[in-house]
Amino acid sequence: MPELPEVETTRRGLAPHCSGRHLLAAVVRNPKLRWPVPDDLSARVAGQHIIQIDRRGKYLIINLSHGALILHLGMSGSLRVLDSATPAGVHDHVDLILDNHTCIRLRDPRRFGAVLWTQNDAARHPLLENLGPEPLSDAFDGAYLYRISRGRSSAIKQFVMDSHQVVGVGNIYANEALFSAGIRPGTAAGRLSKTRCTTLVAAIQETLARAIEAGGSSLRDFVNSAGEPGYFQQQYKVYGRSGEPCRVCGQLIRLRRQGQRSTFYCPKCQN
DNA sequence: CTTTTGACCTGACAGC
DNA sequence: TGCTGTCAGGTCAAAA
């Protein structure tokens, strides 16, 4: 499920229910996620104050009074705030128990997600310290993309999906943004003009910002909600539409594999 | 150094 | 129905 807009929507949904609360314990039903959930997690977090919840790329960071939890939703993870007495389902692997009879519950059928603990500043964690800039920050602009892409032969789609260049651009939005920018996904990154880099950055930012807006507006009741983000109902321009007519020109949308991910593009609108 | 490939998992779905 | 194969919103680690 989670691309950056859903992670941000999750963060916004979680925050009002946890900020200022204390954690009583953690319940780990299955520690076998992307990396093992620390077996002393509960002891580490018990009694700690939740300062605030941040996001870095698709990582969620729950800052505690001493240390932080680093969460990732992988391909299939979701977080909800529930009454802690709510029976856990088969894929409900971790609960963070709050001091008001509620819990933050991680459900993750595919178990590509993560729950990690760090004693230090989460930004210094090995998984986070070498990440590229946030896509919606001023640091991510046309000049930056132009500069880092010089001499790079990899396809622009894979390049912008590389978290070391810029974080948070997943498969759906990479496809959508490249369509918006009119750029063929297989184009070598190093061959993009500065103008096209600027166009692409703007397209990425607009695509993500609109999806976050859609997700946020659908977020009525995060507690006990089904967790259906609004952006999921968005009408995609190319993603998942191979063989269907382009919404702009009517040409049939094409599908190809790039780095074992599906790439969708319009052969006429994207060059 | 860059680029590509493999790995981690389960569930949904198409086709036989 | 039940089996097999394919695909899925991520991304790190290892190989080339």
Describe what this molecule looks like in 3D.
The chain is an alpha+beta fold and about 270 residues long. The chain folds into two domains: about 5-120, Alpha-Beta Barrel (N-terminal domain of MutM-like DNA repair proteins); about 140-265, Helicase, Ruva Protein, domain 3 (Orthogonal Bundle). Helix content is about 25%, strand content about 20%. The chain is built from seven helices and ten strands. The strands form three sheets. It has a four-stranded antiparallel β-sheet with strand order 1-6-7-5. It has a four-stranded antiparallel β-sheet with strand order 2-3-4-8. β6 (about 90-100) and β7 (about 100-105) form a beta hairpin. α1 crosses α7 (about 195-215) and α4 packs across α7 (about 195-215). The protein is elongated and about 55 Å long. The protein binds a DNA duplex (16 and 16 nucleotides) through α6.
Write a short abstract of this structure.
The chain is of the alpha+beta class and 271 residues long.
Helix/strand layout:
Elements: H1 4-18, E1 23-28, H2 41-45, E2 50-56, E3 59-64, E4 67-72, E5 78-83, E6 92-98, E7 102-107, E8 114-118, H3 126-129, H4 142-149, H5 156-160, H6 171-181, H7 194-217, E9 254-258, E10 261-265
Antiparallel strand pairs: 1-6, 2-3, 3-4, 4-8, 5-7, 6-7, 9-10
The protein binds a DNA duplex (16 and 16 nucleotides) through residues 1-3, 6, 32-34, 58, 72-76, 91, 108-113, 127, 151-154, 158, 161-163, 170-173, 232, 239, 259-262.
Features:
four-stranded antiparallel sheet; DNA-binding; 2 domains; Helicase, Ruva Protein, domain 3; 27% helix; alpha+beta; 7 helices; 271 residues; N-terminal domain of MutM-like DNA repair proteins
